[in-house]
């Protein structure tokens, strides 16, 4: 589904628009000219649907050469191996995400707890995927007409990165699970979820300038996206904690 010139939503689950597997996060695709760049991969259970949506939107999946992961959680990084097997693309991730994804470390993404709680199917397996490009904080990658800046944003998970994507026309913040519409966040009962780190990351994001906020669940904003960061910061400034979406 095209959402802006050269920008598509090609995957989304039940915390979004029910396009692909219910567990999938939003999967965004940017047309960079000769090549396509995808942000987050979904769980892997909806990979064929994601590729079918691309074809329906007139996008040749063979042109998807780059995949950036915001973090390793199953609904974002679990599908990396599935896209890699089908497309042979280059996976980009921060160092901690790369460590988890490259070996398929289920404990590191709290998958045993998620399965035990019934949140994930008991037969779900996190397949390891090679990460071809390990990002450092502040690194800017140029891909065709796109500039992608990697921004470390731990808190929701210890390994989380956001990405600032600049096209010739516009800047998009790929928010992952760090910040959502209305200034909300996701706090979970997981070993590496941290309120102080979450707040520090939101304050870091407040220093960036962008028009669109493309988060990994719920609504996205194509303009005035910074208002969601500002809404979170207004609560933080009063010593509060932004509300969690779960
Ligand atoms: Zn997550």
DSSP, total strands: 12
Structural class: alpha/beta
CATH architect. name: 4-Layer Sandwich
Order of helices and strands: EEEEHEHHEHHEEEEEHEH
End-to-end Cα distance: 26 Å
Characterization of this structure:
The protein is of the alpha/beta class and 246 residues long. It contains seven helices and twelve strands. A seven-stranded mixed β-sheet has the order 1-2-3-4-5-6-7. It has a five-stranded mixed β-sheet with strand order 8-9-10-11-12, with no helix packed on it. Strand 1 (2-4) and strand 2 form a beta hairpin. Helix 6 (195-205) packs across helix 7. It binds zinc ion. Zinc ion binds at residues 71, 73, 156-157, 177.
Task: Describe the protein's topology.
Elements lengths: L1 E3 L2 E5 L15 E5 L4 E4 L7 H10 L7 E5 L5 H4 L2 H8 L2 E4 L1 H9 L7 H6 L16 E2 L5 E4 L2 E7 L8 E6 L4 E6 L18 H11 L6 E4 L10 H12 L9
Parallel strand pairs: 4-5, 5-6, 6-7, 11-12
Antiparallel strand pairs: 1-2, 2-3, 3-4, 8-9, 9-10, 10-11
Helix pairs in contact: 6-7
The structure holds zinc ion.
